[in-house]
Design brief:
The chain has about 400 residues and is mainly beta. It contains two helices and 21 strands.
């Protein structure tokens, strides 16, 4: 009861209607998930505790050596009949130190209608494109939730109208994206982060109508022999902002520019080999025309010594035509990683990899492992480390942000 009252008090701090609704759906939806109140809904979700440890003193003002947070996520699914359904996925995190990381969001709040040769979705949704391990250049629909993870794999829900045409050879997806969501950034007391704080409240837009700009995207995907292929076009507000100093607010602020992006992705499954590639061409008034790509392979050793375990070796190359002028740190880099899956009852998995700057600037080391305990609990641990060889490299700003993250989740 005390925890519920505390959660309600937290919700009342969020006066924006979408956030308030999301917050109460988490608090009350999860608390009622085992009762008859949700008898007509399929409900699943998780509560997760997270502990982060930072072994080095930061070069910015956030000098905590550890951090603790709690998160809750639920998925409510209901079949409405007549080939219609609704999915609602609220998410909530409460962070001890970083007020910017304490947030609520709808990952999904979307209606789906399925026809014989088509499918339509409308609402707040998530869509993933991509085949690579290190970076997904073609994943352009959803905004990155950067306070959740240092990588770009956590996403915010995106307002969308999506029509999928189902063909014998594959799918055609058409997207209308009414409304842009700005990227989240760690606050002054957040770690890991860069030395500067980004004032997201003062975000600027190249589009005259700001975040009310309507974006458009289209994608064609299908299978030809051993190859899964995709081609797409996107026009609208770029999800990754340019960071600039804004003298009017005396702070660094994000600038979201307009761009047109054409992308291709391919993956071939050849027995033990997976061949992967993603390539994009971006152009815009405030953007240098350029090509970026990631390409590589994964080779798997199956059932090693009849143990049931699989070991995969991943190698990828990342390239950005802009070179040192690219805002991305991954402009001439290589990934080597090893993926281990024990394929046991506990679903024990591990992934270890290093991204090396081929210009000699440094390395990014990543380790992660997870396993289940019983039917309801899952523990995971991850480590991110930065090794910088060049004091002029942008990586120097992360040199003391090494961190270990431990999570324990309860799933239902």
């Amino acid at each position: 009861m005390f925890a519920l009252k505390g959660a309600i008090k937290f919700c009342n701090r969020h006066h924006q209607i979408p956030r308030l609704i999301a917050c109460y759906l988490v608090v009350f939806g999860l608390s009622l998930s085992g009762t008859a109140a949700w008898a007509d809904w399929d409900v699943r979700g998780n509560f997760t505790q997270e502990l982060s440890v930072f072994p080095h003193t930061a070069i910015h003002e956030a000098n905590q050596s550890s951090n603790y947070s709690l998160s809750a996520e639920a998925e409510f699914y209901s079949n409405l009949g007549d080939n219609g359904s609704i999915t609602i996925t609220p998410f909530l995190r409460v962070d001890r130190n970083d007020s910017e990381r304490t947030h609520v969001d709808f990952r999904e709040f979307i209606y789906t209608h399925v026809g014989d040769t088509w499918e339509a979705r409308a609402g707040l949704g998530k869509v993933f494109f991509g085949v690579a391990e290190s970076e997904n250049l073609v994943d352009v629909i959803n905004q990155t939730d950067a306070v959740e993870s240092f990588t770009t794999d956590q996403k915010l829900g995106q307002p969308m109208i999506n029509l999928t045409l189902i063909k014998d050879w594959g799918n055609i997806d058409l997207f209308v994206l009414p409304g842009f969501r700005t990227r989240t950034f760690a606050g002054a007391n957040g770690r890991p982060r860069l030395p500067f704080v980004v004032n997201t409240d003062a975000a600027e837009f190249e589009a005259s109508n700001g975040n009310d700009q309507i974006d458009f995207a289209a994608r064609v995907s299908g299978v030809i022999g051993d190859w899964d292929l995709g081609a797409q076009v996107f026009h609208g507000t770029a999800r990754e902002p340019l960071i600039q100093f804004n003298p009017s607010v005396n702070a660094l602020t994000p600038l979201y520019i307009q761009n047109t992006e054409i992308g291709f992705d391919a993956q071939a499954t050849l027995e033990s080999w997976l061949l992967k590639a993603e390539i994009v061409h971006r152009a815009g008034k405030l953007l240098d025309d350029h090509i970026a790509l990631v390409a590589g392979f994964e080779y798997s050793f199956f059932d090693i010594k009849s143990s049931g375990a699989d070991l995969g070796i991943v190698a990828e190359y990342l390239y950005d035509e802009r070179g040192d002028g690219s805002p991305s740190l991954l402009q001439n880099d290589a990934l080597i990683a090893f993926r281990l899956a024990l394929n046991n009852a506990a679903s024990t998995e591990a992934l270890a990899g290093v991204i090396t700057d081929l210009d000699g600037a440094g390395n990014l080391l990543s380790l992660e492992a997870s396993r289940r305990f019983g039917d309801s609990f899952k523990a995971s641990i991850s480590y991110t480390g930065f090794s910088v060889n060049d004091s002029e490299s942008p990586l120097i700003n992360l040199d003391r942000e090494d961190n270990t993250r431990i999570e324990l989740g309860y799933f239902f």
